[in-house]
């Protein structure tokens, strides 16, 4: 973007006065460069994030100001009334609760079962390991639609349709292979000599895994957790097919603000913001882990 | 990032996620395969919970979907009744006048989405590669679109495209790009492109951050020596950056193609495939046939067509990785 300013030392040798002028100009140059960078970043950030900013702005305005030909920016047009309406709406609260139960549940189950398999794939030698691992990876590539149709019929038959357990199992079908793969990727690089030491000290293999190896791959575990949680929290296709009004998740509730007659934007936007907050908190706290996992998640970060 | 690489997978290496496991050598005998039967038994114990779940939740449904695709599924007195039709559902695809256009639209959607997300994403990655505080902050902020759900993304853009109050209209009118407010998602001529931009926008930061990690892996010395040799900015980009990015770019390309084909949540709640089928992509059509018309057999056949396309892309993806090795 900008050239690196490298001091030209020949000019320094010329005279002390010239040298001082040179260093001063360098300082100004650097300052201008910094200012330029910040302005560029601000403009770029504004353009890329504009839709989100617009969503936030709209969530604080009443219908009178929202449904105006020209956008309204005046300070007194902002109100909390939409948020109050939404947060006292039992259907929204129930949907948030359902999403939380299912996202947390499927993440915990997938990570626990996944870590055992990840260990087997990373550490143990057995026949058919590569074949099995590629098989697990392939399941991640499957489109949701080919699984959701049979799941709908199977779950209907076994009374799992519209239950928490049904959606939980459906989500495990994609979070589990993902957790196995990502946890294995981090485990391969773990300091395994520590495991040998722990076993000399009398630890069992699983004991060594839990007490010694897992703490060394904490960043990987956090990445896996965030991915699993965000993807299940935001999931829509399985949720819309496998839930009913009692068990529907927040993404389904959100889409219901769009009806044939009108779109209840003044209620939809605060709900959208609230629905994004859990994921945003994770991004704010663990941002650096996510960035490292994004590349790992290039395989499948999106459901 | 931030000293993470010491323990976590190396960002660039993980892009070729098979690592040393070459998918094309899976049938050859594992060198250590026969050495430890104790290992094997322990492995079986560790793997069994996951494998049982995967078989029950993925393999069985896949087989059942194949079975369904060979049947006509009728709802009789609140229960499903399967009537075998052989390959009827697949031959029906060929005579379905709504099916072929969905392929065409999916191709257009995929190409446009790739063009937007890869070009803008690469541009952003090059800017973010500058090691400044501003770039680091932006880097973090760009995770916000990633954290948004596709439903929120779709609905947010639907509002911006609104024909009466949308900010897109307001901005374009004031820039002189249009004469009057348009309902971008409401008319067949613009709906598909509008919804493509929606989905591409969400992919941009993701693409940018993946490409950025590829850029970070290019050693600074290569650029320095090229600079000494008198290579300009564009020459350095063309002869150093692009070749070095090639593997990451190819992987991103294949992955983004798959995601385009599987796009659902940023389209269905917004347009439901309308108006007049103009945003009816293959995946959306499979959903509509299955769950709006309850043609679960025909829907399964459509779903298998999608799966076959994805499978071919997966093989292409593996071939790309293999080329790299």
The low-confidence parts of chain B are 1-20, 22-35
Query: What is the domain total for the residues of chain A?
Result: 2
Intertermini distance of chain A: 35 Å
Mean pLDDT of chain B: 84
CATH class of the domain at 99-279 in chain B: Mainly Alpha
Low-pLDDT residue spans of chain A: 297-303
CATH superfamily of the largest domain in chain A: MetI-like
Task: Report helical residue fraction of chain A.
Answer: over 70%
Total beta strands of chain B: 2
Number of helices of chain B: 14
Shape of chain B: globular
Account of the 3D structure:
The complex is a heterodimer of chains A (303) and B (325). Chain A has 303 residues and is an all-alpha fold. Chain A is 75% helix and 0% strand. Chain A has helices at residues 9-14, 16-59, 63-66, 81-87, 90-123, 129-141, 144-157, 164-188, 193-200, 205-216, 218-233, 237-242, 250-255, 265-296. Chain B has 325 residues and is mainly alpha-helical. Chain B has a domain at 99-279: Orthogonal Bundle (MetI-like fold), CATH 1.10.3720. Chain B has helices spanning 11-15, 37-69, 88-95, 99-128, 133-141, 143-147, 150-160, 167-174, 188-216, 220-228, 233-261, 268-271, 282-292, 296-324; strands spanning 71-76, 79-84. The longest helix of chain B has 33 residues, at 37-69. Chain B is globular. At the A-B interface, helix 2, helix 5, helix 6, helix 7 and helix 8 of A face helix 1, helix 2, helix 4, helix 5 and helix 6 of B.
Task: Outline the secondary-structure elements.
The complex is a heterodimer of chains A (303) and B (325).
Chain A: H1 9-14, H2 16-59, H3 63-66, H4 81-87, H5 90-123, H6 129-141, H7 144-157, H8 164-188, H9 193-200, H10 205-216, H11 218-233, H12 237-242, H13 250-255, H14 265-296
Helix pairs in contact in A: 2-14, 4-14, 5-8, 5-11, 6-8, 8-11, 9-10, 11-14
Chain B: H1 11-15, H2 37-69, E1 71-76, E2 79-84, H3 88-95, H4 99-128, H5 133-141, H6 143-147, H7 150-160, H8 167-174, H9 188-216, H10 220-228, H11 233-261, H12 268-271, H13 282-292, H14 296-324
Helix pairs in contact in B: 2-14, 3-14, 4-9, 4-11, 7-9, 9-11, 11-14, 13-14
């Amino acid at each position: 973007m900008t050239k690196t300013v490298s001091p030209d030392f020949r000019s320094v040798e010329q005279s002390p006065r010239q040298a001082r002028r040179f260093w001063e100009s360098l300082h100004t140059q650097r300052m201008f460069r910094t200012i330029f960078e910040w302005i560029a970043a601000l403009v770029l950030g504004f353009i890329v994030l504009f839709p989100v900013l617009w969503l936030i702005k709209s969530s604080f305005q009443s219908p009178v100001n929202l449904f105006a030909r020209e956008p309204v920016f005046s300070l007194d047009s902002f109100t909390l009334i939409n948020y109050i309406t939404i947060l006292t709406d039992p259907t929204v609260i129930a949907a948030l609760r359902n999403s939380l139960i299912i996202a947390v549940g499927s993440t915990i189950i997938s990570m626990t079962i996944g870590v055992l398999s990840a260990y087997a794939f990373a550490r143990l030698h057995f026949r058919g390991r590569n074949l099995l691992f590629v098989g697990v990876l392939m399941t991640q590539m499957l489109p949701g639609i080919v699984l959701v149709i049979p799941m709908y019929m199977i779950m209907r038959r076994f009374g799992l349709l519209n239950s928490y357990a049904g959606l939980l199992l459906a989500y495990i079908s994609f979070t589990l292979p993902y957790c196995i793969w990502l946890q294995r990727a981090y485990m391969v690089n773990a300091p395994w000599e520590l495991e040998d030491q722990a076993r000399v000290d009398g630890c069992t293999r699983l004991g060594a895994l839990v007490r010694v190896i897992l703490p060394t791959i904490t960043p990987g575990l956090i990445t896996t957790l965030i991915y699993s949680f965000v993807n299940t929290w935001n999931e829509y296709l399985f949720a819309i097919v496998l839930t009913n009004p009692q068990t529907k998740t927040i993404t389904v509730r959100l889409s219901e603000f769009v009806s044939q007659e009108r779109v209840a934007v003044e209620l939809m936007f605060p709900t959208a913001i609230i629905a994004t907050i859990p994921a945003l908190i994770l991004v704010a706290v663990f941002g650096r882990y996510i960035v490292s996992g994004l590349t790992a998640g290039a395989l499948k970060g999106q459901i | 990032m931030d000293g993470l690489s010491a323990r976590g997978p190396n960002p660039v290496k993980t892009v070729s996620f098979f690592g040393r496991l070459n998918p094309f050598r899976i049938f050859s005998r594992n060198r250590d395969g026969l050495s430890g039967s104790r290992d094997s038994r322990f492995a079986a114990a560790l793997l069994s919970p996951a494998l049982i779940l995967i078989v029950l939740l993925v393999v069985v449904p896949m087989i059942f979907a194949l079975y369904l695709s060979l049947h006509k599924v009728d709802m009789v007195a609140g229960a499903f009744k399967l009537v075998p039709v052989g390959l009827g559902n697949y031959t029906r695809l060929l005579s379905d006048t709504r099916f072929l256009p969905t392929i065409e639209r999916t191709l257009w959607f995929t190409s446009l989405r790739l063009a937007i997300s890869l070009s803008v994403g690469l541009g952003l990655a090059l800017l973010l590669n500058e090691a400044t505080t501003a770039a680091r902050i932006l880097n973090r902020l760009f995770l916000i679109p990633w954290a948004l759900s596709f439903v929120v993304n779709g609905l947010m853009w639907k509002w911006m495209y609104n024909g009466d109050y949308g900010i897109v209209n307001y901005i374009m009118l004031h820039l002189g790009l249009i004469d009057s407010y348009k309902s971008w998602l409401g008319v067949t001529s613009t709906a598909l492109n509008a919804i493509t931009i929606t989905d591409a926008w969400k992919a941009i930061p993701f693409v940018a951050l993946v490409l950025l990690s590829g850029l970070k892996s290019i050693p600074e010395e290569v650029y320095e020596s090229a600079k000494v040799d008198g290579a300009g900015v564009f020459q350095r980009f063309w002869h150093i950056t692009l070749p070095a990015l090639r593997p990451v770019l190819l992987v991103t390309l294949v992955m983004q193609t798959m995601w385009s084909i599987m796009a659902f949540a940023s389209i269905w709640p917004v347009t439901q495939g309308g108006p007049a089928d103009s945003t009816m992509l293959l995946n959306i059509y499979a959903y509509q046939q299955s769950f709006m018309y309850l043609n679960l057999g025909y829907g399964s056949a459509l779903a298998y067509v999608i799966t076959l396309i994805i499978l071919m892309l997966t093989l292409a993806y593996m071939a790309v990785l293999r080329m790299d090795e």
